[in-house]
Each structure stands twice: as C-alpha cells, then as structure tokens.
C-alpha cells in the first residue's frame, strides 16, 4: 500500500496495490449524509450550481417523456396502479403474518433469516456474516436499504472493502460522492465529469481506465465492464437488497439492467440480502402487477433487461449459503401512522423524482438521505423522525403541486403525507419513535407561525374586531412594508406580501349589496355583517 | 440487540431478541386493524387485463420478435424443416466462436452442424467463472417467452443449464420453440413458472441508463443476445 486515499480528489500514483487495509482507509473516509444542513440551506447552495441544474434538467426531462410513452402503451395502467396499491395495503395491514410466512418459506428453501431492529444491528449482522467467510472483499448490487444504513462505511471500519458494481454507484463510489437519485445515483454527473472520475480514480480501486477514454456513454460503460470484470470473477461474497420478497414461496426478486446484479447473485459462494420488511408481497402471482408497474415507471422500459428470482439456495447453481437480513430501522414507526403508512407501498421506481420541480432544481443531495425527492421528503422524516432540523425541514421541500402523486405507480398520496408531516412538525402530537408511542413536541422554529394562527383564529371568531382591523389595514395600506419585520422576515424573503385592498369585501358588500344595489341581503349573512 | 437509551425502550419488550422485538413493533403499529380481519378481506381488484389486445398465435410471435428487436436482441427465424442446426452453426461461425458452452440437456441435433473445431464446453460444477470467461458463446433453450414485453425467461432446466453459463460468456444464442413456449403477457408467463427454480428474465442484452438517463446496450451480461424463433419442424431429428 503506497499511501492512503484522500477524500477530495487528490491525485494518487496509478497502479496502487489494493488490499484490506487500503479498503478500510478508503471506506472510513467515505462521504456521509450525517450533519447535513436543513433543506432550505442545502437547496440555497445547490440551486446556484448551474452545472448541476443543467445535468438534472437534461436527465429528468429525457426520462419524463419516455415514461409517459411506456405507460401509455398499457390502457389498463390505472387498474394496475390500483391493484398495486391494494396488494401493498393488504400486505401492510397483515405484515406480521406475511413476515412469519416469508421466514418459514425462506428457511425451508435453505436460507437463513436474520432480524435487525435498526441500522447498527443490520450492519453488525452483515459484518459478522462476512467475517465468518474469512473474506475481506465483497461485491454489491445497488441497494437502497444498504445505502440507508450506511453499510459500506460499517464494513470499511471492520476492514472489509465493499465494491459497488452498479455503474452509477461505481461513479459515486469512485468520486467519493453521495447518491442523489434512487434509480440513477450519479444523475448529478454528466458524461464529461464521469470520464474524469474514471480516468482519475479507477486505478486506485483496481483496473485503471483505458488510455484515452472518451466521454461517449458506450465507452464509459465499456470501461466499467473491464474494471469490474475481475471483481465479479473472483468474488466470494455478494451483498444485495431486493425489490420484492414473496411470502408464499420465499422467493426474492432483483430487477436490474446491467447484469451486475446477476453477477453478484449467482457467482459468489455466499449471498447476503438486506431487505426492508415492507418489501414483502403475498403471492408469486402478485408479481404480475409489479413487474408491469416497475420497469415502465422507473426506466420507461416494457421490461428491464434482467430480472433474477431465487428461492433459498439451489444445488450447484448460485450461492451455497444465503442469508436474508430483514430490516426495520423506522419502518414500524411509519407503519404505526395511519396517514403516513402508505409511504411503505413505495417500490423505489423514482418516477416522483423525475417529475418534481423542486427535485429538478435542488438536486438529490439537498434531501440529506438515501431517499431524495418527493418520496424522500415523506419517507425520511418518518424513518428517522422529525427531531433534527434537516428532517423537520423535509416536509416543506415541496410546492404541493401533486405531480408526484399522479405518476406514482402505487398511488401514494405524497402531498397528503407532506401536509400531515408539516402538521406534526408545527403542532407536535403522538407518533411512534423506535417502536414507542410518544408525544412529539412542536418544533421551535414554528412558534411565530403558531402564534399567527392562534391570532387569526381569535380574530376570525370576533367579527367586529376583524372589521375594525380590516378597515385600519385598508387606511394604512400606503405605509405597509414590502417585507415582514421580525420573525416573519424569513417568510417574506421568498414571497410577495398580499396587497391589502382599499376596501374589505364585506364593506364593499354592505355598501353595494353585491353590486346589484337591490338592498336585499342573502339569508345567513346577517350575523356576520 | 442494540443497546438503547432506557427512556426510549419499547414498553414490555426488554430482553426480547430482535425478531420478537420487530414483530411486537409491527403488531403494535397495526393496532387500528381489527383483530378479526383476515388478509383476504382487504380488497384487491384484479380488473387489469390478462392480455393487452387480441392477437392470433402468429401475430403474438411477430410481436415478440418486434419487442426483442426493439431492445437490440438479434432475432432469427428457423421455420423450414431441419433449418435450426444450420442456423446455429452459421451464427457461431459469423461470430468467430472457438468454443461454446453446452447445457446438459441441450438437444443433440442443435449443435450437429457446428464444426468439431468449435470446442464444446459442458456445463459442469467444476467450471469456474474464469473458465466461462474464456468461452466464446453459449447456446440454450428457454422456459417461456413473453411477447408484450420482449422477454425470454430461463428456469435453469437441463436445456438451459446453470444461471452463470448465460451470464459470463459475451454471446448468448437462445432458442424459443414458437409452438409451445410463447405467451402474450406477464400474467400468463408467471402462471407457467415454478418459483422454486431460479429464474432469469432477459429482455435484450444488458444495458444501462446510468449516464444522463440515456440507454446504452452492453454492460456486464452478454453484449450480444441472439434469439431464434424455432418452428415445429426446424430442429430435425434429435
């Protein structure tokens, strides 16, 4: 090992030897979402990054149009969508039964099932399982669950190097970067940036990039193929997530495009899959709905290039040992919220990110978790709670335009949950935190808003006072500031204050009788005038 | 079990192992679900189509060919009697293949026209990933093919071999029997498949959309996928 790896792009001598120690060095330096600023601050910085905005705009607009075409091919899309939502609801309402059924089926098929209450426990289980094999290197299929728990960092601390094999995850890993999209974690990088990362960094992790690498996507894909080939062929341990787990049969499903998934799922001797407990579906037949909904929603394809399913272990074909780690990590807290529960239907297609005007401008990193975009804005504050400033700010990272709900293949009413979570942040109230029913305190930053709402309620309950106030406001309108003073300043930073009219509606009505001049007053208006 | 702050310890779950802890949390989270409710009582309406559109069998095979080609699979037809062996030999020849992996149950006639100079590599347990990486091509059958999506499904039956043999070599020739292996839709395919077997659904050669969400064919799986739609008489006598 000739020198350690630096985080921020320092040049390394090419041909650096790989080894367990270098892996640990690399890993412990890896980027993390911990300590990230609240969404408004993060977005304030990212929206000024014109390169990022151009990359995101290009990518999201490309996929948006393609998705619409792929969905339009199926005239029963809305029925598939309703069925997808219903199957997930059925599963969630009886999750205990389905998890038990899944566990017995996986065990009967030769797999071993482990349970992890939180991220630390899942990381510890996986680390121990890898250690038991005696291996110091693992190959990984792209997995949201392992991103969520920060598995690569935990493995690195234990001296185990995890190689990401999905092209976009590879770009992120080589660039000491964080994922910014569920489907395409390196969506914030354009082809030129990717070429530079490959040229500069591949040699530190294994086979260097070919001489004179161009920025043509086909050439970049070829460079990734060559770089990862030796890792696949030598791999003894593979780590994956899963898109679906079938309770009835114990079958796991991984949906992918590149073939890196197949490599990790079939060549190693040991396979460890870390999967959220909400990924279960009741029957093998239920896959007929999700295998139609998912590819068209995510990559806008009739079907993705490769889907692998496996049930336990198979003699002489694929891994001899299969471990399934079932992960809670806040999912049961989400399940306990009858409004927010529907977020657990999510099949991680990322259609909501691609249509979101806020995501398109702020980028994925601003959401401060593995789950960016609209789904992240409702999932992260439920999985992690709303205690931190960042997590409390996420339900506000939306204009509530509803485009996310419209494209969601399992009909998650994201705007409804956003408003629900805003209420929880401002008002506090009962919630489940790490399995315990607690009462959340109202967030500090919203004291002014609560005071304003209380004042408004009081004023609206006192019509005479309201009238006096309105008249006073009208008479003084020339002197009104354009921005609010004091705690209201932040609010008016990004908003126009409404203009106070010369005369209130009710005064106008009283004066003109609704403009008709007949003098007859509609019934029911008497007591308010 | 994770050590926690005593103040946030789940009530009544101290000392439980993680399985019991998670199950207890799930049950508590579902306090709103009536105890008597069964999963079947949560309605799931399967009013979606079983098949999209109404096609003749021949038209279904045409659609399969179109959709496979749309995702860059190379599609060939073997309709004439005994035409399949010659076609396979030609495809391997055009490719310049020097070796081919042979699943244990591949019909003998399929490779009968392939010159002896092309080394046959049997799919055995001793075959390492490195060995496979040195082989030019693989020829297999399939379990079922889906017209609407342009998908072939392998189930590791004897004419398809272990999953790895259709993954590591860079050239895959997959033969579909049009008389009994083509279905219209995903629901029809699932019905025919056995979940206990490892399944690989293949829709075109490997691809990625990871660079600017632009689709590029050919990453880790075989970069060339050739599909042969074989008529009933095409294989000749085994």
Quick check: average pLDDT of chain B? 92
SSE-based structural type of chain A: alpha/beta
**Largest sheet of chain B, described in full?**
6 strands, parallel
Tell me what portion of residues of chain A adopts beta-strand conformation: 5-15%
CATH-defined superfamily of chain B: NagB/RpiA/CoA transferase-like
Largest interface: A-B, 109 and 84 residues
CATH top level of chain B is Alpha Beta
Q: Find the count of extended strands of chain A (DSSP E, 2+ residues).
A: 12
CATH architectural group of the largest domain in chain A: 3-Layer(aba) Sandwich
**With helices defined by DSSP (H or I, 4 residues minimum), what is the helix count of chain B?**
5
Largest sheet of chain A: 6 strands, parallel
Name the CATH superfamily classification of the largest domain in chain A: NagB/RpiA/CoA transferase-like
Beta strand count of chain B: 12
Secondary-structure class of chain B: alpha/beta
Shape of chain A: globular
**Low-confidence runs of chain B (pLDDT<50, min 5 residues)?**
1-11
Percent of residues in β-strands of chain B: 15-25%
Q: How far apart are the first and last residues' alpha carbons of chain A, in Å?
A: 84 Å
Give the number of domains of chain B.
1
Biased composition (Basic and acidic residues) (chain A): 492-510
Pfam families (chain A): Fer4_8 (PF13183), LUD_dom (PF02589), LutB_C (PF11870)
Keywords (chain A): 4Fe-4S, Electron transport, Iron, Iron-sulfur, Metal-binding, Repeat, Transport
Domain Lactate utilization protein B C-terminal (chain A): 421-511
